[in-house]
Amino acid sequence: MIAHRLRLAAVRRATRSNVFFSQNIPRMVLASAMSTSQARLISTQQLSQEEGQQVLVNQRLNRPTWSGASAWTRITGCALSGAAYVYFTTYLASPLLGLHVESAALASGFAALPFVIKGAINGIKHLVYDLGIGLAKAQIKQGEIALWVSSFIGGGYLAFGL
């Protein structure tokens, strides 16, 4: 709307003085050729209350479940953040308590893992998803179970040296 008013003001100024009229003609033509409005190509239809309710019910059926990948990503993010706070607090207090919670101990525990576990498992789920494989709900649930089991086993190995 502002652009339209500016263009209109420019045309009025150009027509008032004939001295600059010939110089402003190309600018006015260029300005009038530019579209400053947006057009949305949508259509609406009138629905009854029951039809509208049915549309909402169908949309809800297509939503991911609470136990979907997005919810578990948030939950694991919160758990990892909480674990990081606990670890760093323990790391700061370990000299006072006589504990050996140091980077060298964690690095040696991770270094003892086989190469396949260190390199290959990291991110496999997302690489498989990028290929478009395993996107059905049942397959996602199986993948989440495998991820949880491998996370607990790996975490137990790092924490307790099982």
UniProtKB/TrEMBL annotation:
Give the GO molecular function terms: electron transfer activity; metal ion binding
Look up the record and give one Gene Ontology term from the biological process aspect: tricarboxylic acid cycle
Q: Quick one: a GO cellular component term?
A: membrane
Which coarse location class applies to the principal site listed for this UniProt protein? membrane
Q: Where in the cell is it found?
A: Membrane
Q: Does the keyword Chloroplast apply?
A: no
Keyword Heme found: yes
Q: What is this protein called?
A: Succinate dehydrogenase cytochrome b subunit
